[in-house]
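Morning. Coffee machine broken again, so started the prediction first thing and wrote up yesterday's gels while waiting. Chain of 109 residues, entered below exactly as on the submission form.
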Amino acid sequence: MPVRWRLRAASIVLCTIAGQAHAQGTDTAARSLAATCFTCHGTDGRSVGGVPPSLAGRDRNELVQQMKDFKAGRRPATIMQQHARGYTDAQIEQIAGYFAAVSPAQSSR
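Came back before lunch.
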């Protein structure tokens, strides 16, 4: 195989590995942001007992809208308005994406 083809193949492999590492880092960052929710909404957003509601597996857009409504004071709450105001819109998007991707069923590890 010519040297340039080997270099091209190596570049593709490295880009793929870098992309996977970046995706894993993004998941870690989103989980770190979402971790503040675990105290009330359960680990990984799986609430025990239903109050407050579970966030795991919920629709991402629904979660974003609810958080933005809390942040703007359009949705009444006891504590969620204060929590929501502490996040940027980009962070709210990350948190919502994290919970939407989590399976609502508890895994048996």
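The chain has one domain: 3-101. Going to sketch it on the whiteboard this afternoon.
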